[in-house]
Amino acid sequence: MKRFLIIARQAPYGSAAAREAIELALACALFDQPVSLLLLDDACFQLLPEHKPAAIQQKNLAAMQQSLPLYDIDKIYICEKSMHQRGLHPESLSLEVVPLDAAGMKKLIREHEVVINV
Amino acid sequence: MKFTLLIQSAPIDSQSSATALRFARALLAKGHEIERIFFYRSGVQSANRLALAPQDETNLPLEWQSFISENQLDAVVCIAAAIRRGIVNAAETARYGVEGDNLIEAAELSGLGQLVAACAASDRVITFGGGA
Amino acid sequence: MSDTTLHILNRGPNQAELLNHCLDSYSDGDALLFIEDGIYWATEHYAEQLSQFHCFALKPDLEARGVSASGIQTVDDAGFVDLCINHSRSVSWS
């Protein structure tokens, strides 16, 4: 058993990156490996509420995000600096987040054996 | 040591797949083992048999095919990522009612579970490519 | 073997924020290997800002781009493998 850390850096819908990061996190959980998800840069926007991607013929990422807690991924780590740069606040995001500073990111990485930047 | 290699970017559009192949060769030359090579995201294009290269250029899918089969390695292409990007085998095209297939013979289509299992069984996991 | 991380960075100054995240995540004892377009960070112009990090640059990528590393160790593919062995995990910043 290994602890997996999945790092996402891309906004939703502009590419498959956001979806493919969450799919990998869910796959880890499905195969009984402890997994954490860390959002950096534009990936912070994945947690804005009220996605309506039907307007661009895409599936709603929120459905996948909502299943994260069902697989014990109930806290999403988020880069504090990335959030502030984008004018985002934890209270306005769709899932509970744990903001991390640089010290927090160092510690998070050290706590996981497998780190995948998707 | 046992390694899992994860390739997430396509040849031509990124150097990552080529770097991964060079790294894989160096790994075996040093006597290490490759548990699995897993192609995810645009990295699935590394397994496209229909990528054609002019005489004076490297054909990376062909090189991966040779490397994997000569060394009898386990290579998996993420099925969900692959079919959406047009990397398919006969079974999948039959399922969808279309003609043709282009997956290199040395690789198989399977799920992300194969990546997770390989990482769990390996001493080291090295990722090539990804991001945008 | 100690519990350290090999950071692998393959993008250049166009993606300066990627380097920032990499450096923010770097702990004592870690190493940072520049490969592919990341080797531009290994040049003299960036040497001072990276002096406190244990940096390496991949030779084939330096040579391909006609660039010399300044004040940091260069490795070949075998050296890349050794770095992966010597650190208990890797993080690829791509």
Could you give a short account of the major beta sheet of chain C?
5 strands, parallel
Name of the level-1 CATH class of chain A = Alpha Beta
SS summary, helix count of chain C: 4
Instruction: Please tell me what the overall shape of chain A is.
Output: globular
Helix coverage percent of chain A = 25-40%
Return the structural class of chain C: alpha/beta
Main sheet summary of chain A:
5 strands, parallel
Can you identify the CATH superfamily of chain A? DsrEFH-like
> How does CATH name the architecture of chain A?
3-Layer(aba) Sandwich
Biggest interface and residues each: B-C, 23 and 18 residues
Number of domains of chain A: 1
The termini of chain A sit apart by 20 Å
Give the CATH level 1 class of chain C: Alpha Beta
Structural class of chain A: alpha/beta
Mean pLDDT of chain C: 97
* General shape of chain C: globular
Fourth-level CATH superfamily of chain C? DsrEFH-like
Low-confidence stretches of chain C: none
Give the CATH topology of chain A: Hypothetical Protein Ychn, Chain: A
Order of helices and strands of chain A: EHEHEHEHE
Write the SSE topology.
The complex is a heterotrimer of chains A (118), B (132) and C (94).
Chain A: E1 4-8, H1 17-30, E2 35-39, H2 61-67, E3 76-79, H3 80-85, E4 97-100, H4 102-110, E5 114-117
Parallel strand pairs in A: 1-2, 1-5, 2-3, 3-4
Helix pairs in contact in A: 1-2
Chain B: E1 2-7, H1 16-29, E2 33-39, H2 60-70, E3 75-78, H3 79-84, H4 90-96, E4 108-110, H5 112-121, E5 124-128
Parallel strand pairs in B: 1-2, 1-5, 2-3, 3-4
Helix pairs in contact in B: 1-2
Chain C: E1 5-9, H1 16-25, E2 31-34, H2 44-47, E3 55-58, H3 59-65, E4 73-75, H4 77-86, E5 89-93
Parallel strand pairs in C: 1-2, 1-5, 2-3, 3-4
